[in-house]
Amino acid sequence: MVVQEVTDRVRVVIAEDSVLLREGLTRLLTDRGHDVVAGVGDGEALVKLVAGLADEGALPDVVVADVRMPPTHTDEGVRAAVRLRKEYPGLGVLVLSQYVEEQYATELLAGSSRGVGYLLKDRVAEVREFVDAVVRVAGGGTALDPEVVQQLLGRSRQQDVLANLTPREREVLGLMAEGRTNSAIARQLVVSDGAVEKHISNIFLKLGLSPSDGDHRRVLAVLTYLKS
Question: How many domains does the chain have?
């Protein structure tokens, strides 16, 4: 298998209680030139590890954590992720889940809109997409699974705002939430880059996001729907 080298190397900590999956994720990332600095099997160990690295001035770029970890296998992983986002705003956090768990996704997305991701574990099989998501979150971007986006947008309480968007604009917004670039959205929808830019401009206008909001408008557009 030929593995493409990367230019943007990131430092990753993996929190996953399944040793097999943890080793698999490590292999996927290291084979593509990234540094997995440590791996742990529970949420408390994750918090202690990151705190120790921070004290040494070696905070990782991103943490990849399972939602459910020991001892109860309920919400230890996402609780640790939320705590780390609050304590280390510059730390990217990418959470993996077996299913779309709306409460956890919404809690993770609350507050700061930078450096956050929520993917279903099935998405790991799409190796390039998974690695791209890790890099994107490490760089302060977002990476939301299409199924997560669909469910959260569909259940949003802000249906009055959602109703103002055309079906195509909602489709574009969903792809934006996944972290896709304009060019990637254009390829997905088989339209021109200019058409995508027009749709995004309309979305910003309908959501009341002014140019002064800068690059964060993309994330703010998504969070408008995801926040309860």
Answer: 2
